[in-house]
Automatic annotation (TrEMBL):
Keywords, in A-Z order: Methyltransferase, Transferase, Ubiquinone
Pfam family, one: Methyltransf_11
Name of the molecule in the record: Methylase involved in ubiquinone/menaquinone biosynthesis
Source organism, top-level taxon: Archaea
Length: 236
């Protein structure tokens, strides 16, 4: 998996959220991503939810605050340590457990969770069908995941990244869903400007770009230009 060693470095974790989500355009993308996850999984109160590649717990803590019982799984011990700190600080550590593990071999029985989701994950994997099947195995109801789109501005942005990202066509996503015995129930397409570029922008500039994107979203070109897609599916 791409970036496996990089995400486990203590120095990366120390600056991870500060560089990406705490200022300017990064704060905007953090809010938009949380809105997308919340809408895809709602209602969450009383549900058992597993987050794959939970990192420092951005989404897991939010869902626990909304009344879900959450398990966050990640391969990085330093990331999980930061997640536990945030859960304690938010007062939700009784509804949120963080585990270190491999998403290709989840340590849970079949149908163990109501919902399973993975955000900022599938762009790193080398065998997406294998991973999606494993997510579907431990879910009794819903699987939500995100992909970076091949025919979008993300293709140009990828050239500037040290690790690059796996990009997906719609045909590839349909093949993944079929291989995992999942039925697509909803889809949302976002970010004409890749959110990696958003976080480099001052807040006011990022908001102006966002208004422009919202205008494009209302046109027939909106979905086809989006750099990211959120997929919600049910287990067959």
């Amino acid at each position: 998996m791409k970036g496996q060693e990089w995400y486990q470095q203590e120095t990366v974790v120390e600056s991870y959220e500060d560089k990406r989500f705490s200022r300017g355009g990064g704060r905007l993308t953090d809010r938009l991503e949380k809105e997308a996850v919340g809408e895809a999984l709602a209602p969450v109160e009383g549900r058992k939810i597993l987050e794959i590649a939970c990192g420092t717990g951005r989404f897991s803590v939010m869902l626990a605050q909304q009344g879900a019982d959450v398990v966050g799984l990640d391969i990085s011990a330093p990331m999980l340590g930061e997640g536990r700190r945030k859960a304690r600080q938010a007062g939700v550590d009784d509804h949120l457990e963080f585990l270190r593990g491999d998403a290709a071999r989840l340590p849970f029985p079949d149908d163990h969770f109501d919902s399973v989701f993975a955000i900022r994950f599938f762009h790193l994997v080398d065998e997406p069908k294998r991973y999606l099947r494993e997510l579907a195995r431990v879910s009794s109801d819903q699987v939500v995941f995100e992909t970076y789109n091949r025919f979008s501005g993300r293709s140009l942005y990828n050239w500037a990244l040290p690790m690059g990202s796996r990009l997906y066509s719609r045909r590839e996503v349909d093949g993944m869903l079929a291989a995992a015995d999942l039925r697509l129930t909803d889809e949302t397409h976002e970010f004409v400007v890749p959110f990696g570029l958003y976080r480099k922008l001052p807040g006011g500039v990022a908001k102006a770009f966002r208004k422009l994107e919202e205008g494009i979203d209302r046109t027939p070109l909106g979905d086809s230009l989006a750099s990211i897609s959120y997929w919600s599916a049910t287990v067959e």
